[in-house]
Amino acid sequence: MNSPRIQPAVMVLEDGTVFEGRAWGAPGTAFGEAVFATGMTGYQETLTDPSYAGQIVIQTAPHIGNTGVNTEDMESRRIWVNGFVVRDPARRPSSWRSERTLDEELAAQGVTGIRGVDTRALTRHLRDRGAMRAGIFAGDDAARPVPELVRRVTEQPAMAGQALAAQVSTNEPYTVEPAEHGWDGPVKHTVVAVDLGVKAMTPQRLAERGMRVHVVPADTTFEQIRQLRPDGVFYSNGPGDPATADEQVATLREVLDARIPFFGICFGNQLLGRALGFGTYKLTFGHRGINQPVKDLATGTVEITSQNHGFAVDAPVGETVIAPEQRYGRVSVSHVGLNDDVVEGLRCEDIPAFSVQYHPEAAAGPHDSAYLFDRFTDMMDRAGQDRGPEAGDN
Amino acid sequence: MPRRQDLNSVLVIGSGPIVIGQAAEFDYSGTQALRVLKDEGLRVILVNSNPATIMTDPEFADATYVEPITPETVEKIIAKERPDAVLPTLGGQTALNTALALDANGALERYGVELIGADVAAINLGEDREAFKGVVERCGAESARSVIVHSMDEALAAAEQLGYPMVVRPSFTMGGLGSGLAYNETDLHRIAGAGIQYSPTSEVLLEESILGWKEYELEMMRDAKDNVVVVCSIENVDPVGVHTGDSVTVAPALTLTDREYQRMRDIAIAVIREVGVDTGGCNIQFAVEPATGRIVVIEMNPRVSRSSALASKATGFPIAKIATKLSLGYTLDEIPNDITRKTPASFEPTLDYVVVKVPRFAFEKFPAADPTLTTTMKSVGEAMAIGRNFTEALQKAMRSLEQKGSAFSFARPAVEPGPNTVARLVEKCRETTTERLRNVQRALLAGATVEQVFEATAIDPWFLDQIQLLNETAELIREDPDLHPETLREAKRHGFSDAQIGELVHLDESVVRGVRHALDIRPVYKTVDTCAAEFEAFTPYHYSSYDRESEVAPHEKPSVLILGSGPNRIGQGIEFDYSCVHTSMVLREAGYETVMLNCNPETVSTDYDISTRLYFEPLTFEDVMEVVAAERRTGGLLGVFVQLGGQTPLKLAADLKAAGVPILGTSPEAIDLAEDRGEFARVLTEAGLRQPKNGTAHDFAQASRIAHEIGYPVLVRPSYVLGGRGMEIVYDEASLKTYLENATEVSPSRPALIDKFLEDAIEIDVDALFDGKDCYVGGIMEHIEEAGIHSGDSACVLPPITLAPDVVERVRAATEAIARGVGVKGLINLQFALASDVLYVIEANPRASRTVPFVSKATGVQLAKAAALIGVGRTVAELRAHGVLPAHHDGTTLPEGTPTAVKEVVLPFARFRTPEGTVVDSLLGPEMRSTGEVMGVDKYFDTAFAKAQAAAGGPLPTSGSLFVSVANKDKRSAVIPVKMFADLGFEIVSTGGTAQVLHRNGIESTVVAKIADAEGDEPTVADLITDGKIDLIFNTPSGGQAARGDGYQIRAAATSVGVPTMTTVSELGAALQAITAQRQYSWSVTSLQEHEQTLRERAAQEARGA
Question: How is the cofactor bound (chain B) (predicted)?
Fold first, then answer.
């Protein structure tokens, strides 16, 4: 039985561990940081989430591809993961919305995968030793000596210190109109969303609430932002190490200095943290799943959140402090992750700015945190009232 | 917020006897609840009439009432115990309904008792169909569209809107009378036309049909701070049309995109909030139209349900435990996740495996019943399996059913199937029977396409493709008779057993295993951890998979492996799980590490913190041996207990021993000896004991000769069967011939056993312990019905009420002699019959029996625990010295004044219909058909019997009318009890011959026509019963066929309206005693703790007096 479908493949970790499997998706070799994602639904959203750029994603759910691929559920224009590791890919998708199979999609987009891997063993390994560099070698490469493969893995750059946001960001600005997403009233506010790896659902969530959203590239300057006369500025999620995003942090400080309402998610949360003068650090193996409990410290309620982050903000939990950049006044940690007490949100008390580390736009994931978009809207409403009727009237 | 400080005592209501649809899972949830409440330092009061439950073990509550779960009795308990609160959401619909009744009648208010975990308004909103539709609409979601019509014109107009097929449901008719599915206008005219007539309000509900839609269920939890989580999503492989309890189901849902799943989650959360579910668990069911994705909400259960148990086992998230904590005021984020220890319960479990549940049916017990699966649940148990993919989990689940043919067979038909065969096989898939999944696999194997089968079944193509994958894998195996490692690995990855592989390559299972072991292709054991390995797990809850890494940790001490009893079935239910759990509990206390192996998700034994380690695995020789190997690798395995889980593990005993596995307790040789007629007869002869005359026949001629020799009536049965399967009492040669012609289980290699049937004998059941030297008789139970009715179906009483002291002594001596002769080390169950003062031995089972929990509760001695300790080397003398067994007395010498305990059974007849739609016959016989049991305890037999009847769901009337129709053989003995009923003021209603006999004895009765003789519109007895004009029925069957028709219709009518029916004279006598007592006083309630106190005091008095 040497059918072309059954080609060996191996997943090699930088610590020398090797997992056998079978080639899947596009033939060839893939390198990246090995991370695991625990969502049982939403593989298509995961693949197209720009925050996964540079990573090899391991799906802990064994059956992947059951509902095929459709255009509607794409979170961006392409697949961003460097490699994809699953146990049992679907042979045949079944969904009334399916347009093509996942195998076809991976092959078409040149994404190398590996199937038949003991993904649980791999996940446990990464959990105990932390996320690390890895490579998928399919076909003839799979038979090369392990030390050679390990060497090729370790030749790759580590995730810490990588600036990836600019790579995944849109090249040209574009606008998402409220009317495109079911809002039939007048436009309420204009938001400039800086694309650091934004997912399609995020501008949609804003547009549904009456916001016109100008999505701009990651290197957009404050001056360019101001020319769009925003009522609010939004920083999206995105891949890479926040410590590399000095340019975006500088721009954000200008936004904060101008007292323009600000909302950031994920990478945007890390950049708000850095703008306020806090540090960021790399988590051992990150949070990637759609079942992560987060407590809103103001209300005491728990939301089940969608998360995808390998870095976090280092800020004190449980007390309101003056930001290290003192001109921004008092700051509190607004949300914490209940699994490990990681900072999951920041709230400025003296300037109109807040952010969360997780994904209120979900996709994939629960919609428990959608209220945060309302909070942003309210913030812009209040700022508009403060500024008087002439502002924000477009 | 932390726990409420204003609650000091809580009354938990259990779910009562095991019935179809409400089974062992409520013992599992109730036991968790009790443990939580006790840990929190509350005074815990429990009411549950089911003695076979772990929750009714006295150590789990401060006051345990094994009393009927009726509003009146529960009110008495409230009056006596004065709890602060009642927790009614963990005992199924029984508990919820009882609580609602207590709320409605003001009892809760009178005693100042609060309902916790439930809100009456919310329950009503959740359960009232129309109100619930409003809820769904307010949440922006949809229910199935429906229209109420009052005329055919309106119906036709509605049809335009709803489209065919459509469900037609007349309003306010009993038991769905007149409902049907209209596929076209002709059907609509017929069904709705009649429906408008049937309905007292001339009203018919027309509803769009969602048959064939995808069906899902979400298990939810909500806390007092309005935090809501989805614990588990469950997808039915069988689309809408088959009850979820009868469907093959899978967790998590496998064929939804995230958008659809989140939409369902949003709706579920909105509905919970709109309904106002208080704290705790609930579930919501959805249907999804496959072609459009339209979502319709089917219903919700505002309580812990059957599927909550499944969801708990499937995810490792203990719903009942957490629900109980929430009812005390905790919030989800304050409760730690037991498995990870450091993360909170306020999260949604994520699975890195697939769970499949398959139902187990018992249609073979009800040959007349229509085996079509509908929206009425008919399965009696279930098996669950966990695998790293769907195929592995499905195949494990199917072999866990332990029924012949339950696993897929991939053998090719002898002839290549032609197009007609394929078409016929596809057609067969349309029938929603227990065979459907196997029919699907056969059709695909024969060459049908996934599309064809989808069209016929509406089973999602993804699942069908997985079954196709199994067929393809089978082909791979078939083509590689040398079994190369890649082939074996691939086969094992998809759950093929060694036996299935062997069938494909014409090798014995053991040869396949030999090859596999030589190639070192062995399963690994993964852990259920709620979090897909994101966090370390501290609970060794394992399942096997053919994958790379095993997670079984080394043992610190030798382990004892306990084999459970597998899926519940008639004849082997919760009672056996009880013994397994007790064994695990007592051996853990004694310092052993215990390892449970079972595949039944409903049970307490598969709760992950009952044993040191849990393997959720099928109970086949292959699967057990792999666990044994895993245990040995990790330094465990002192030995295996096979005598506790009923026949399932027992039948593995010899093979395990042959494979070198140490068996604890009674040896496999002793087990065989008791099963072997010749050997057993020798033991009896040596002990000077008698058996009814008997013989073994391979054909009719032989059978006829034996029957003549020993004399009719005879009891015939196939050899090697359980629960009286296929057993019948035969009165003449013609019936013997019919029996043998129809008995599919009799063949030259499997002969029929023929015993002299002892008419009018008193049947006696004994449970005893033996350690090789001393015997401890746990209890002697006297059956209320005469011999001939399966012991599992007959009511019994302990201590025996009519056995003379010398008979009890003979029973004791016989028990000891047999236990010694067989070589028992642990429990033995014996059945005797006393006829004309001669004691006959009917059978001996050297294992834990169905009655162990009843005896334990009635006598206050935990027999299963004692048996487990004997299994690891303790002696009866030691157990007596250490207080595990009473120091001085045993079950034959219970102290004077010991209260009387009655066991009564519940039967599932009302669930089953013949294909023509009538109820199946409820006549009891030598084949067991009950699903569960209750216990009634009181000072004397009369009230204990009355309690047992009330608990079993048929409270006895204290006045009204008694219908009497008895067989000739019973006419004489019926006179006196019937006379006494007449004297009590009962109206006696009778027919023909019975009426004459009564009249001659001075008992006047209202005579009604026999069904066969009724003329014109003359009402028959069946009509009177259906109209509710009869309060009690006394109908004994005659052996002949003629009266059978009448008797059947009487019993059928009684079953459908639920009138208590006595089918033996002795039962009527018991009823008479009970009714007389009830007319004199209202019973009081006694807790098991008080009962045990009484027993201890009486024993101490006697010891002092002695």
Answer: Binds 4 Mg(2+) or Mn(2+) ions per subunit.
